[in-house]
Amino acid sequence: MKNVHSCDIQPLPGARFGGVVDVSDGVAFVAAVEADPGQLPQALYDADGFLLLKGLSSISDDPELLIRLSRPFGDEVEDYATASNRQNLLHPASSHIIRISNMPPMNFAPPEQPDPPRTEDGALPVQFPHRRGWHTDQSFRRPPPDISLFYAHQPAPRDQGQTLYADGVGAYEALPDDLRAQVEDLLALHVAPFKGYGEDAVMVGDPPQELNERDGPQPQPVVRTHPVTGRKALYLCEREQIDWRNGPFVGMEPGVTGGGRDLLYRLMEHFTQPAFTYAHHWDQGDVVIYDNRCTIHSATWFDADTVDRVMWRTTVWGNPGPYYDGEARSWEVA
Ligand SMILES: [Fe+2]
């Protein structure tokens, strides 16, 4: 078994991808990461873009630890004060951290339960379209971000508020030949959620809101080659983070009933089948590090009337791959 900063990396239980590390002393672990900053990113790449660190509760007392843990993953830990539309999410200790929470002032409502809320065998629904909300972070910007770190400061009870992850490399490699041929050079149109461009808004005829440079829409390749591992991965969102007015795909029939819709549904159903997914049940002090270039994820319901959930997130930028070489940032308009 491999080792990272004197901790064993174990395979992620219940998944065919990912790794888990038990950390006994969070402060010492972060110091060890800084002393040899190449190790933890390499461990992430070796684990197919998903790493769970357990036992980092000390981040709650010192939020800077989460930022220090993020820095080895890229050139820039996003400063949400300058780049986000949602200033109410900023952590009071640092604008490099956002708080995803149902509590004020964030007021981030959890998604509804799937219908029905469980599968026939009583499991948490994971596969699209029974499960909705699959996305990769900020795909409506070009170039998109590399990696997110998600910390459970105050998670929901374990049977609520899970986060689901899917492995884009495994899903790509298992694509049927006809689908692979269709997506190899295909672009999808990604847009910021809840702006009237999502599938539901278009279906019921809601008018689109005005978009700014932070919102997209932006085309992104459906197949991305990872700049470090060289492996190809599916890269796609659905529902709210796809432009259903002009997309889902560039050069295909647009809208919620056309040929583009049929292809997106087929791809997402394939991408999120149990063989490529993992459902994370959060414990306080967990950090999940996920590579947005080769994984997607989806939030699940919790009872916001009785549960106050507070998660912290950082986002790391800087290595989207040669496909984006020389591009100005789409959200920075001179
Ligand atoms: Fe996300």
Name the poorly predicted regions.
none
Overall geometric form: globular
The structural class is alpha+beta
The name of the CATH topology is Double-stranded beta-helix
Beta-strand portion reads: 15-25%
Bound molecules: fe (ii) ion
CATH class: Alpha Beta
- The radius of gyration over CA amounts to 19 Å
How confident overall, as mean pLDDT? 96
At the fourth level of CATH, the homologous superfamily is Clavaminate synthase-like
What is the first-to-last residue Cα distance? 50 Å
Number of β-strand runs: 17
Sheet with the most strands, sense and barrel status: 10 strands, mixed
> How many individual helices?
9
Q: What's the SSE pattern?
A: EEEHHEHHEHEEEEHHEHEEEHEEEE
* Name of the CATH architecture: 4-Layer Sandwich
Share of helix among residues? 10-25%
Number of domains as seen in the coordinates: 1
List the helices and strands and how they pair.
Blueprint: E1 3-4, E2 7-11, E3 19-22, H1 26-35, H2 39-46, E4 50-54, H3 58-61, H4 64-70, E5 76-77, H5 80-83, E6 90-91, E7 94-101, E8 147-154, E9 163-167, H6 168-173, H7 177-183, E10 187-190, H8 199-204, E11 218-221, E12 223-225, E13 232-234, H9 259-271, E14 277-280, E15 287-291, E16 295-299, E17 310-317
The structure holds fe (ii) ion.
Fe (ii) ion is lined by residues 135, 137, 297.
Describe the structure.
This protein is an alpha+beta fold. It has a single domain, classed as Double-stranded beta-helix (4-Layer Sandwich). Helix content is 19%, strand content 23%. Strands 1, 2, 3, 4, 5, 6, 7, 8, 15 and 17 form a 10-stranded mixed beta sheet that branches. Strands 14-9-16 form a 3-stranded antiparallel beta sheet. β12 and β13 form a beta hairpin. The termini are far apart. The model has no long low-confidence stretch (mean pLDDT 96). Fe (ii) ion (FE2) binds next to loops.
